[in-house]
Amino acid sequence: MPHELRAQLERLEELFTVPTDLLKRITAHFQSELTKGLSVEGGSIPMVPSWCMSFPTGHETGVFLAIDMGGTNLRVCEITLPEAKGEFEIVQSKYRMPEELKTGTGEELWAYIGDCLKSFIEEQHPGEMLEKLPLGFTFSYPATQEYINHGVLQRWTKGFDIKGVEGTDVIPPFEAALEERGLPIKPTALINDTVGTLIASAYTNDQVRIGCIFGTGCNAAYMERCGSIPKLAHLNLDPDLPMAINCEWGAFDNERVILPRTPYDVIIDKDSPRPGQQTFEKMVAGLYLGELFRLVLLDLHENPDAELFKGQDVGRLRKAYSLDSSVISAIEEDTTDDLAEVAAFFTTTLNLTASPAELELARRLAELISTRSARLSACGVAAICNKMEWKTCAVGADGSLFGMHPYFRTRLAQALREIFGWGVGDVPDPVMVRAAEDGSGVGAALIAALTLKRVEEGITVGVRNPESIYRGTKDEERDERVE
């Protein structure tokens, strides 16, 4: 590699490498911020009580609808929970979220979701007269919840910027869209995909204590004790009651105290719809990894000390967010001596011809960016374990980075070993991160089932208008329980 490129690569390695001592310091600060988020004063990490107040037993039954509003697709599912413990059946359809919808109006958003639900029902149950179906709504954006069937959007993430929705309860306009279309559907639980991941994973593995998403966005959920949530003290809940907490940890270190941001992270934040917010997410989430890669390559092209792709037209490389995290994965998967697949990517996608040295630099850059993502992500997992004093537990993880990147999970595991100081003999690792069950589908259905169950048992705390979500109960019995 020419001296100029070697010098630039060494600079990038210094910028993106997170050594063990820094991992430990980030973890300690992360833990204190998790605790602060549960306090009355609060902090950058919202630590949202989800009002999901139990783990599944494995014996939940019924038919439920679930929708998952993600950053790219809207997924509609019908889930059947049979008598067999831990089993489920699922039928689903995906609908692409139109890009124009992400900056449109709230009315357009709810109308689109209502139309997709109607299409799904007509496709799966043609000509049938359906009774009211309970629905779990996976709404993977920061929302304040005073009830499990209620949620006030705090702020859009994942590239959404729909006016007039932030600061409002998302359930009433969604219900109105359902009613306009004559759909026999009742939103029973509004959940975050991370809480769904926690519950779905615990449904099949009772050692699971944390649910994580490492994908377009990043987040975690775990089960806290109500007595350790000072901001709920005014409700006088039993301190031993469990409460699933949606951390919304993408907002960690918005104060810029400890995370090792690079000049490229600063650019991403400055040009984002919400500068100064979601600092952690912008450094680790899949939505931003391809953009980091693009910004570095463009900077090296324009740097007279590097002159990457010298004399070539980099017009395609100038388009913001034209590369996503799948590019990072594909580049790292190329283990050929001549990096032929990386070369083909530059030719076909960016119309650039890369020299062997430029190919090697590009591959190492992809590795640096994704490794930093995995290592910083481990800090959040470790912080929850330390806070709860868990020496061993299972973690259910979902998302495109965890599922599709060839090395993300091994790098995450290695970072956890460094943070906790596990020795070579600690096999298997005391904290195991494994692929999750379908949190946004099965998890949403399970939480709807758990909500119905506790309401039918007369436990209505955290449920708005509990009488409206009863099923299979005579009116007089229902009225008596509600009273």
Automatic annotation (TrEMBL):
Biological or metabolic pathway of the protein: Carbohydrate metabolism; hexose metabolism; Carbohydrate degradation; glycolysis; D-glyceraldehyde 3-phosphate and glycerone phosphate from D-glucose: step 1/4
Domain (Hexokinase N-terminal) ranges: 9-203
Recorded E.C. number(s)?
2.7.1.-
Q: Where is the Hexokinase C-terminal domain?
A: 209-450
Q: Name one GO biological process term.
A: glycolytic process
| Primary enzyme class | transferase
Single GO term (MF): mannokinase activity
Under catalytic activity, the entry for this protein gives: a D-hexose + ATP = a D-hexose 6-phosphate + ADP + H(+); D-fructose + ATP = D-fructose 6-phosphate + ADP + H(+)
Q: Which domain of life is it from?
A: Eukaryota
User: Which UniProt keywords are listed?
Assistant: ATP-binding, Glycolysis, Kinase, Nucleotide-binding, Transferase
Q: What protein family is recorded?
A: Belongs to the hexokinase family.
- What is the name attached to this protein's record? Phosphotransferase
